[in-house]
Amino acid sequence: MSTPKRVVIVGGGFAGLACAQKLANDKRLEVTLIDRRNHHLFQPLLYQVATASLAAPDIARSLRGILSKARNIRVVLDEAASIDTKKREVRSADAVYPYDYLLLATGARSSFFGKDEWEEHTVGLKTLDDAQAIRRQVLTALERAERCDDGEERRRLMTIVIVGGGPTGVELAGAFSDLVRRALRSDFRSIDPARLRILLVQGGDRILKPYSPDLSEWAKRRLESLGVEVCLHTRVDEIEAGRVHLDSGEWIEAETIIWAAGVRATKLTADLPGEKDNAGRVLVNPDLSVPGHREVFVAGDIAHVADEDGKEVPGLAPAAEQMGHHIAKVIKEDLRLEKTQYAGRKDEFRPAFRYFDKGIMAIIGKNCAVVEAGAFKLRGYPAWLMWLLIHLLFLIGFRNKLVVLLQWAWAYVVDKPGARVITGTGKPEPVR
Amino acid sequence: MSTPKRVVIVGGGFAGLACAQKLANDKRLEVTLIDRRNHHLFQPLLYQVATASLAAPDIARSLRGILSKARNIRVVLDEAASIDTKKREVRSADAVYPYDYLLLATGARSSFFGKDEWEEHTVGLKTLDDAQAIRRQVLTALERAERCDDGEERRRLMTIVIVGGGPTGVELAGAFSDLVRRALRSDFRSIDPARLRILLVQGGDRILKPYSPDLSEWAKRRLESLGVEVCLHTRVDEIEAGRVHLDSGEWIEAETIIWAAGVRATKLTADLPGEKDNAGRVLVNPDLSVPGHREVFVAGDIAHVADEDGKEVPGLAPAAEQMGHHIAKVIKEDLRLEKTQYAGRKDEFRPAFRYFDKGIMAIIGKNCAVVEAGAFKLRGYPAWLMWLLIHLLFLIGFRNKLVVLLQWAWAYVVDKPGARVITGTGKPEPVR
Questions:
Q1: Which residues neighbour A276 within 8 Å (Cβ) at sequence distance 6 or greater?
Q2: Residue B87 sits in which domain range?
Q3: What is the ipTM of this complex?
Q4: Is A171 a catalytic residue?
């Protein structure tokens, strides 16, 4: 047998993991999966960790654990620092990973539209640590408000500004409203947590832009009925520690400022040749390879892919997963053709990626969601049931599924999510 | 009605919480519970968070949540800095809490036998953050070992020294052995996690000193069958970063050094008058008040209490809980007597604390425990079943109970604990 081809996958998100799983135990391949974290994250539920409904391990699973039976896959906890497409190598601070095939799937990071200094005054929602930081900050702010005698400072502590009216911003706003209006209802003595001010700031003319305008409008009214202030046509033009300036001219004093607005591709894409879009995403070939480098693939949030009808493939978990599967298929087909008379012409036979749109859904507080798939639209309680079912089916790992279901069921009955635990701080911060 | 008496409780552990719960909704009292963390911790299961079996929120519950229906209790996230028993005030960095009755129940901290510099090279197991730090360190060390080519360094990364052969040390050692021998069995490619070296260092002539010698001996053999090296009659006489010197003359190179040896009372006890024992614990009156200050009580791990037959009450959760209940009873009886002809003589009627010993139990790896209660002894699988039942019954909060049961059941069947998630580090540490 010939020496196995080396596949290097950078990133254990939906795209990277899906590809790895399809390549598992293929003896023609030696796969190395590099991630700087030890776990695959079920990102669609990250906002529930941030809002104290779920514990961090409920929505994450060790990459090694998932791939333990794939004897041809090595998982490495490392951070890829650069890619040399000429030498066909990925490099980290202290290691070199040579490849025959490379899949870059490192995902998106927050984009501050050129105002990188805003990063230190805001919290994002990309990782488990981010989610725990948001939870810690909001719960600690309420604790400080409870102890605070100064009315103005108390109002500042009890204000959350969420920048960005996409699904993340909407789900966070709804979940925070639930948290303070239901779960924490009778927990405090000096403050009324229900008076937590939640502002959702959106530059465009509606929230949940990927949905139809009527669902956007419905979601906005629903959020408002939950006490969320939805500010459309409003942009943030300055962020300082503890306050936000809106282009309407107003300063909002807010202890917690959550950045859920723009995203851009992670830095590593800069090492790839070829064109990038405004968000730094790589314009890939229809087979998801990089122009001029048929052995290099890009998938997930860092790939700019146009669908057959020219529509852009969205940055969603199912899309990333489908790309990962597609790339595994391409690699396997390559290997097969190499043994045939078409070996020299194998690039010609590469199939184009086709996105199968399963639809989109977002949660808006307890018992309520919006769902849209093609012409199919659903909202309110039935949409929420559908969301629940689908998320339980797709949550990775049976254990997590059962545990999460049970937690949700219990929290649903008693209105008390269970993860209201502040960790990561040795001491309480003094009241300012 | 007369003005309510102010009760200040410092510490939301088993003693403080038990007392607060007994005082709930007593209109004669205004209770303030001060804790520097927002949660009550079920400490007996903390080692399961450290060894990746449970998530942090599974064994913790928000103090506010537990006491939300107690309208006369205010929970404050603050750190008590000093006590003025003359002015009857507890002070923090920015607040003063006057009291009519005080309960100090701040628990134990690690004692390094005068070698405080050892603290920075070791991890303890007192808080959720400690447990997550241990988990992170051990999992990260395995990740680094997987990537390490230097045999000696790899052995150092794959060595854990646990100082202290009490229940904490024994339970950690057994659980780590399970983790690497079962859960992580097929996760790695370059290393065999089962070769993780676990040393349990114990100064005395047996582990689990509170148990009978035959159970200690049995537990030791059981740990050894799990691959743990139990070093009796061995003391640590030096600890540096990444290595430990034993008084047998040997240096042990170990990435992870866990301190589970001595404990001493938290610092605040220094502000109380009267005698302390070697561990800084307050020698209290039989009613658990402080000599000369009948309005000041001490309970839990910082109280030195002799039982009726002169035996010291152990530092266990049930003992702390019983103390908390007792103090609540004393306070309520005080208030009752004040309305009677005995008002001036109420100190004479204070009942003495009586410890009801329910027995002790410790887990030694999967399916195995030791239990001892008076003349009753049990070991092995039946002891483990008993442990399981009792811990499920006593775990605070119904939701946690169900979730934990389910996690255990699942982990039991598949041998894969689910919390193998490293959080709290942005980047992997480079291999040394």
A1: A265, A269, A282, A283, A304
A2: 5-36+78-110+263-349
A3: 0.86
A4: yes
